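re: that chain from earlier
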Amino acid sequence: MHEFELIKKYFSKLSLKNKYSLNLNDDVFFDKSRNLVVSVDTYINGIHFIDFKKPELVIKKIIRSSISDIVCKGVIPKYYFISGSGNKKFFSKLNLDRISKSLNQEQNKFKIFLCGGDTVYSNKLSFTITSIGFSNKIIFRNKAKINDDIYVTGNLGDSFTGLKVLKRELKLNKELEGYFKNKYFKPDLHLQLTKNLLNFANTSIDISDGLFTDLEKLINKQRLSFILDLNKIPISKKLEKVLIEKKLKKISFVSQGDDYQILFTANPSKERIINQYAKSLRVKISKVGKICAHTQKSLIIDQKGDKITPKFKGYFHKF
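^ sequence. v structure.
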């Protein structure tokens, strides 16, 4: 069973009398009367991260991907809770010291504070992060409009390239491998843009499961479709070089997820102000497509204008 089918069938009805749950169809809980925004994420060893050989880097990835859910809503994260299950192998004194130092670094970087959590003995390693921010306004899902432009921040595909390097599925020189591994473990979050998103974004989500999958999630309950221009989807010069040298397809790298960039839509009239924010805040923001009526099928077009279909749209949890 697909994760969203599971939620709809068994849990959605439990939230009907709670408007702050947003029908369990968004990344956060939002209580406007209390200015409260909350997100929860769980990470499993072997699924959300390959292994725990570098706990100091794994924990950075976990923290950043968790607060990303709040960041893409136009809200600055403030507090977090962390719960972990594991044993002495995972939580040795050396690993705990590395985890603690990394958490301190992330707290200083993003101005967030640890508030509590839980520890459980288990032979399986997992973490659950609860992130909290405060705002009387957020950017919701399912608020796209026909003719909205579609935008993404930063570059896509670097994280997936890092994953392929870590899995030894892609061999590069040491400098490039270091760059892509760093992008996998430490995704860029654009907090300087966060509050400004409220000035122009109609709807937003972070790219965790893949550009195409997350775009479908963004408009999942609306009778809308989209057109994406593959040529306009931003990638780094380093990834562009790898794709050319290894004769790899761009679409296979930008559709995999783990980017944690912000995907949003905006009215075409907002293009000028978006470009101004991008320039003044030094944040890369790229227009990659358009929202269309449901009568038109969602499309991805390549450099020649031909329609293409990705072999892998993104990640889904299946039960």
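The mean pLDDT is 93.
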